Amino acid sequence: MTITRERPGTRTATIKAPLVGLMVLVVLFLGYSLPHYVGLDPARARTIPPANVPYYYPMLVAHIFLGSLALLTACLQLWPWLRQRCPLVHRWSGRVYVVSCVLGGIAVLTFSSMTYWGPNQQAANTMLGVLWVATTIAGWRMARKRRYAQHREWMVRSFALCFSIILNRPWGMALMAATSPQDETAVAQIVGVGAWLSWVVNLLVAEWWLQHKRHTRTA
Asked: How many domains does the structure of the chain reveal?
């Protein structure tokens, strides 16, 4: 039987490279998205605020900034070195993440039923908001009970839902390019499908990864 040994530093490199890529992606996304909302000008928003709903834009801005904070702290939570060497920073950044997700999810629920592209997108965003809040609270409760294995699993699900905001527009653009819709009704359906895919695919990948980890630990 041949025993293969990993060279020193191999495991560290395989962990760091995806995390660095994820951090770069988050920074690029925030650098592109946040300038539209920094000036608090509704005319620059990337979504169309309804004229007769005065709280829509403030809640949208709250969701954008809280979601941005959640993305940044999620990267810190996923950093193994920080979790192992600086547990206090890990815990406090985790608390910031939980508060950002819960409040950001509640904010999106206040206007998700009024988004411009109709019932399909509205249902996708509403379900995303509910699951985002629920998985984050479940992860926090497991940490409070010191059930850390379950805490990590729920937080992986929460992270998967959190990062859906980055993939929403790419999914929509890919579907638009693939289908070339001819009218606004078709566009609305494609936008809705993109909204579903942006978090359903993430969640399925997260569940596959969790099952794989369980199987590996058992073996």
From this structure: 1
Residue 130 included in any domain: yes
> DSSP 3-state assignment of 41?
coil
| Domain limits for position 210 | 18-218
Tokens 């509205």 map to which residue? 122
Cβ atoms of 100 and 67 closer than 8 Å: yes
Residue that is written with structure tokens 């495991």 in the block: 11
Asked whether residue 6 is domain-assigned, the answer is no
Which pLDDT score, from 0 to 100, does residue 132 have? 97
- pLDDT tens sequence across 39-59: 888 888 887 777 788 889 999
Helix (H, G, I), strand (E, B) or coil at 7: coil
Can you tell me the distance from the alpha carbon of 192 to that of 196, in angstroms, rounded to the nearest whole number? 6
- Best CA proximity match to 203, nearest among 113, 143, 124, 131: 131
One-letter amino acid for residue 171 of the chain: W
Which pLDDT does position 128 carry in this prediction? 96
Q: What is the pTM for the complete model shown?
A: 0.85
**5 part of a folded domain:** no
Report if residue 211 sits inside a domain: yes
Report how far apart, in Å, the C-alpha atoms of 31 and of each of 18, 26, 38, 49, 190 are: 20, 8, 11, 22, 26
Q: pLDDT band at 106, cuts 50/70/90?
A: very high
Interior/surface letters 18-38, b for 16+ CB within 10 angstroms, e for the rest: eeeebbeebeebbeebeeebe
